[in-house]
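Need the bound structure for guanine, inputs here:
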Amino acid sequence: MTAQLIDGNALSRQTREQVSQRVAALKAKGITPGLAVVLVGDNPASQVYVRNKVKACEDTGMHSVLEKYDATMTEADLLARVEALNNDPTIHGILVQLPLPTHMDAQKVIETISPAKDVDGFHVASAGALMVGQPGFWPCTPYGCMKMLESIGYNLRGKHAVVIGRSNIVGKPMALMLLQQNATVTICHSATPDLKAMTLQADVIVAAVGKRNVLTADMVKPGAVVLDVGMNRNDEGKLCGDVDFAGVKEVASYITPVPGGVGPMTITMLMVNTLEAAERLVA
Ligand code: GUN
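Answer from helper R.:
Posting the output first, comments after.
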């Protein structure tokens, strides 16, 4: 069997087209959705990510501001900037790019963002809302994964989903979203004794570890759906995910590639969250 690709670029284009239309409708009512992206320091990967986020705002007609600060910025100064953005009526979403310099307490910075503007979905209020099924912002990467499953018409009810990785940003919220759609969910992590025994039972596998070849063909039940959240470099320096794509695509029914899979969807869901933060003002 050769799996069908779930094309994150194509789904992103489609979704961003819909976002653009809703942005235009909101602008007609006098509101331009605005995103503030805050970058502290000069992490090269972060610089690429924030550039792509700002460009996505421009492409969908949203307002954006990129605030760049030196790595020596104090935590107090950053907290003051976040407070100012909380009170800025032209800004509906605030994103502080992670990682932050080590002298800062990232969670404290995130908790300073107003939950109404927490379009990353990292605030404890957002995590709590997801946990109890109340409206709030969902973290963009697992949200994008859910949209990818929806795009293939996949019904999770009664299916076994295995999430590999337990981060606050992907693994844990991913498990809650799958659970909300009535999947039976297993979360595996570095202390799981027999990962293969778990993944072989899975109808859906989400790999979100940040390590190459975490999932190989012998670990996948024929016909399973595989979503690859990883973003790594192989020995030749090329981008690759957590999944051994060449092998697994011969066993799975659907698979997301890296690049061109979950990555573009993450930024697209950030646009959706920012738009919805602004739409809530007129609702
Ligand atoms: N660093 C890596 N991914 C993300 C993300 O989705 N949001 C933020 N704020 N920082 C990140």
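Comments: The chain has a mean pLDDT of 97. The CA atoms of residues 230 and 241 lie 4 Å apart.
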